Predict the 3D structure of the following.
Amino acid sequence: MPHPDPFLSYAPSQPGSPWETYIAQVERVLPYLGPLSRWAETLKRPKRSLVVDIPIEMDDGRIEHFEGFRVQHSLTRGPGKGGVRYHPDVTLEEVMALAAWMSIKNAAVNLPFGGAKGGVRVDPGRLSLKELEKLTRRYTSEIGIIIGPHQDIPAPDVNTNGQIMAWMMDTYSMNIGATATGVVTGKPVNLGGSLGRVKATGRGVFVTGREAARRIGLELQGARVAVQGFGNVGSSAAELFGQAGARIVAVQDHSGTVVNDGGFDLADLTAWVRERGGVGGFTGGEPADAEAFWDLPCDILIPAALEGQITLARANRLHARLVLEGANGPTLPDADDALAERGVLVVPDVICNAGGVTVSYFEWVQDFSSFFWTEDEINLRLDKIMVGALRRIWDTADQHRITLRTAAFAVACERILQARAERGLYP
Ligand code: NAD
């Protein structure tokens, strides 16, 4: 029986949890790791997990407490790297899985980072700007004992953005008495942020999607694309697919589902979301039932919201030929098998959405050298790294006749465990 309390055990607290999904994904690659598999247990437990209390004086004078987390899953190949999520459902166990996926992602793309992730259990929509700033600053101070430009470098994730990164950078800098721009990435460009970072994850989804489509003979011109989540990742990916001639025919977010068989006017949709906070009610399309989203005829599906969205039942109903995982962990393991059996190609999260961390890596390098690149240079380098990483994973998948996900995990786990074996065990 899995232990019910994630604080007391690394066993998943419930079936289908993100941590359970991650563990199942690691188990699948053990046969491909040869002698390195003796180190595999190190992948199944985070190196370091920090749980912090964040007391905030609210605007009305009440003191509210929030729970925050920072998990460093692996520091074997370099400093920790991974985003910070603000969401009412955040748990330690979820952050553990997200941190572990960052280890795999950074290794799959061959970035010199380990894997980490952070989160605060909060509905940020309920906070005023001042409360949000206080929460961010106190959270940063609390996790300040384990983050740093050489230790662990946070970045934006769900419900966090450049402003929150600016507050994190400022708080950390105040605490150490020096400006440390390299402590976070995804900062505003004026504060040492990188050009191209905001849209980098969506761009990576597009680049890997373009390459995968080419390999399976799917024309992007006129292709029908359905997107779940129209935030940073979903909207940027949709924009690039739109520019490549694809039609965005369905979009779903927390506020509703809208469809337009002729393809949305993305500029109108983006303006609507900016004004009203979600796609729900968008007049440039028809409303649809949330569950019907998974039955809609489309060629490409981009889950770009939260994890666990593609269940077995939904996988069996999808029409798409290609699934591009913009979100982290959107497909449950049994759904993954069903999609493989049905011949639906899944470009897994650990490569598909690695564009963000790749440009974060560029940002970190630029901060250290204090020499900043042009947006063209950044996009070109991003394209090259993503195409190269996908090629290596595709070759591994062909060689062993395995899915791209198992291949990506095999490539990544081999790199992490090779580094582990070379470093040796301390003491
Ligand atoms: P975001 O906060 O900008 O957008 C999240 C989107 O998901 C919003 O459109 C929201 O309405 C939607 N959403 C939330 N709950 C939903 C629900 N129950 N049903 C349908 N839609 C829902 O976040 P983001 O940065 O775009 O991140 C989206 C996903 O991409 C996450 O899984 C995140 O971990 C992953 N990711 C983000 C980045 C990045 O650079 N931002 C990088 C890699 C992976």
About this structure: The domain at 200-352 is CATH 3.40.50.720 (Rossmann fold).
